[in-house]
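Lab meeting, item 3. Inverse folding demo.
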């Protein structure tokens, strides 16, 4: 991608950041609008505590305006009635514009959320582009069906979009998590109202403007900024919203299902929390490679990843060597630092409140008798929100640090003796988003994949995949799948048309 310019220094990025003027409104009907009541909320840079912008803070009346805009666009068919090729062209142009604005988007993401700029340029943005382009390409690849009937009848099954979809998204990958919803939703012909996370809304607002710049009709992609209990709740309760698609916490996922029941039985698609186990069997073929991926699996994005491999289950015969290498690899690889510095590999946590929550969980684990092998506290000064990469040993299965999602750079390491014990520990969780198994034996791998209660299982890798991989969880990790062409179908409903031919 043209954007990954390795010659840019921290100072170059800081100068560019000083020139930015982030959009501060909602995006409704193709233009930026302020909240009707004039309320705003601050966007804070977690790397230094400084104010980046005051953005509109939406209330129910702002959500009503956005849903009305989407509903008008839905009813007059300005998007869904375009030919598949026309919609494909808009989405492809959208991807091109996102690519052309990569530097600006990367800066906004880094300032707003604290993610290292190299990660935005090399991970998030390429994934965003792949997502838009994949679903653009999928639009005319879906078929309906003509079923076998008696000669006096004809039966067609077609897929139709749902109408107005509400998307509620998190702050850990602000653009990418939004795009996993937006691209299939728009490709299917729906209109959308996005409520991005209040901690990092700035890039999503740019995505909305770029959709219109790419030729997307006004009113098809609307965005309301605001906090969950106000704008988010109003969107999820709205009677004209046909579906809520969500990535975030399990607790909020449960609320969204209740809101659907209290309002119009809208569909609710949830991708929620995780506590992913990584199992290292005694016959794994390359301990260095396994440790390398284990480190990345928990510390990338400062552990703020729903499928983070936060529970390391290591066969007792490997345990000491594993921990020793894990510590060395972590110290070599993760340098907490200014996220605008292209050499930084770990940014701050996304907010002060989140940092406090992560530190509290580490302290509780220690109070319950576990020990920090490395890390365990904040780092790099009071004005920022860093937490040092932390590895916790000596935790037992019932401790909160093993059972509850931390969403920070914190892993536990536990020893096991048998495959059955490893599987029991792995599955002893309310979550079931992802898991990995490291072994050189194909039969062991196959057996364990079948036994693991998780929507995604990686064998001898962690986090690998492409757009053909359905991503989502078992148990309380959710009820839906992002990515894959099936996700496009999840933004549609079937219509059965039975023709009487006599
Ligand atoms: P986190 O705890 O990681 O911030 P949340 O689940 O609280 O995750 O937030 C994910 C998204 O859900 C955000 O956009 C947030 O504003 C939204 N949200 C939070 N509470 C509610 C709610 N009661 N109703 C609707 N959306 C909500």
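The presenter then showed the designed sequence:
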């Amino acid at each position: 991608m043209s954007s990954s310019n390795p010659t840019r220094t921290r100072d170059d990025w800081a100068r560019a950041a000083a020139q930015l003027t982030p959009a501060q409104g909602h995006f409704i009907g193709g233009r930026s609008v302020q909240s009707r009541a004039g309320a705003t909320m601050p966007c804070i840079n977690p790397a230094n505590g400084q104010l980046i912008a005051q953005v509109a803070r939406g209330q129910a009346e702002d959500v009503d305006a956005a849903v009305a805009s989407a509903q008008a666009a839905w009813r007059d068919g300005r998007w869904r009635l375009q030919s598949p090729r026309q919609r494909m062209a808009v989405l492809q142009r959208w991807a091109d514009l996102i690519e052309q604005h990569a530097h600006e988007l990367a800066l906004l993401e880094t300032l707003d959320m604290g993610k290292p700029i190299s990660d935005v340029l090399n991970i998030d943005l390429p994934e965003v582009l792949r997502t838009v382009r994949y679903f653009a390409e999928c639009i005319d690849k879906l078929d309906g069906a003509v079923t076998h009937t008696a000669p006096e009848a004809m039966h067609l099954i077609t897929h139709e979009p749902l109408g107005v979809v509400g998307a509620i998204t998190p702050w850990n990958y602000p653009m990418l998590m939004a795009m996993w919803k937006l691209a299939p939703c728009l490709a299917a012909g729906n209109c959308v109202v996005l409520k991005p996370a209040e901690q990092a809304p700035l890039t999503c607002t740019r995505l909305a403007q770029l959709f219109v710049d790419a030729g997307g009709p006004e009113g098809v992609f609307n965005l309301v900024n605001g906090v969950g209990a106000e704008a988010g709740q109003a969107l999820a309760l709205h009677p004209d919203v046909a579906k809520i698609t969500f990535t975030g916490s399990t607790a909020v996922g449960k609320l969204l299902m209740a809101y659907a029941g209290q309002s119009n039985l809208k569909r609710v698609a949830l991708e929620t929390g995780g506590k992913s186990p990584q199992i290292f069997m005694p016959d794994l073929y390359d301990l260095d490679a396994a440790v390398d991926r284990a480190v990345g699996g928990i510390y990338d994005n400062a552990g703020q990843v729903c499928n983070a491999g936060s529970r390391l289950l290591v066969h007792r015969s490997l345990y000491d060597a594993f921990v020793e290498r894990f510590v060395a690899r972590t110290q070599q690889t993760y340098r907490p630092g200014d996220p605008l510095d292209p050499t930084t590999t770990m940014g701050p946590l996304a907010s002060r409140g989140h940092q406090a929550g992560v530190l509290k969980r580490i302290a509780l684990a220690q109070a319950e008798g576990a020990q920090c092998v490395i890390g365990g506290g904040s780092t790099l000064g009071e004005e920022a929100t860093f937490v040092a990469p932390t590895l916790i040993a000596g935790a037992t299965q019932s401790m909160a640090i093993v059972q509850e999602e931390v969403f920070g750079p914190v892993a536990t390491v536990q020893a096991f003796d048998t495959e059955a014990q490893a599987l029991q520990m792995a599955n002893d969780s309310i979550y079931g988003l992802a898991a990995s198994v490291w072994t050189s034996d194909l039969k062991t791998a196959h057996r364990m994949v079948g036994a693991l209660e998780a929507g995604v299982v990686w064998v001898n890798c962690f986090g690998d995949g492409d757009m053909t991989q359905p991503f989502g969880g078992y148990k309380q990790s959710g009820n839906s799948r992002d990515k894959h062409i099936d996700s496009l179908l999840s933004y549609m409903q079937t219509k059965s048309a039975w023709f009487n031919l006599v």
